[in-house]
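Board notes, transcribed. Complex of a protein with iron/sulfur cluster.
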Amino acid sequence: MNTRVTSTGTPPANVLLEVSHLTKHYPVRKGVFSQVSGQVHAVDDVSFWIAEGETLGLVGESGCGKSTTGKTILKLIDPTAGTIDWRGHRIDQLSGTGMRPYRRELQAVFQDPYSSLNPRMRAADIVAEPIRNFESAAVGEIDERVASLFEKVGLRPDQMVKYPYEFSGGQRQRLGIARALAPRPKLIVCDEPVSALDVSVQAQVINLLMDLQDELGLSYLFVAHDLAVVEHISHRVAVMYLGKIVELTDKRSLFTNPQHPYTEALLSAVPVPDPKIQRKQVILLGDVPSPINPPPGCRFHTRCPYAEERCRVEEPAMKQVRPGHFVACHLRDGSAAAPRAKTV
Ligand code: SF4
């Protein structure tokens, strides 16, 4: 039995990915000698885990660090600090060659299907490429697997000879999903996979991802800014603000009883599909601060309706307020009810 305790609880025995204190800073350079004048705090001290067959939604405003977190886990960029454990092996310090045994198990689907597929390759070759890269399969076997993947993602066999520009946006994203599935991954980082698609197509792609998860036992890190989409697909949700996770819990707890003022404000902006239900809107004042010089104390204090003196100087630690529900806010001690902000 797994008895380790992290800042976001005890990972289950079937944990795949464990991220601890992950940090990514980018130097800001100025002047003719490109001297480092500061650091962009893109991701700061982020911790979470993902189990087999689970979807963790990672949500927050643009620029909060969620996509950087996904890219760091994929080792497309190197972390500044922290650890990434993949099925019990530390991968954060591995180079390209060292990462090779793990690459096929960690795949990605990106936001823009127009630019994430090679425009000069036929669809069948796009899907076959990762199989050729990672396996020494015979040509006939590769062709069979590609055909089966096309069927699995809802594309027709006659589309295998087409080029990406001949597909619609939704079909291109299906092609991107087929490519991600090709090396038989265990976890797929989905980075805003539906935000470039028409609303009518978004639901089809989300449902496809959920069906594939049921069929193949996949895990997803689902990065998105759209809370309604995250609610539909996720088992647990982590909310990010200015490079930090401020709340992490199961989907039901987050959407029915948010504990962090920022989550409360985000949820209040989600339209309710029932005209009889009026959701009170929480107005956040002020702008999102720059990640180059994030505010001291709680990073949300410049916009938080409950901010007090302590919030300006002391950074809140992540605390468990009820089983499986973690919040970084000084107002939380595990017993208080969720505060209600000024509403309109
Ligand atoms: Fe608001 Fe203070 Fe909680 Fe930060 S710690 S969210 S400023 S109440």
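The pocket of iron/sulfur cluster is lined by residues 261, 298, 300-301, 304, 306-307, 311, 316, 329-331 (CB under 6 Å). Residues 335-344 have pLDDT under 50 and may be disordered.
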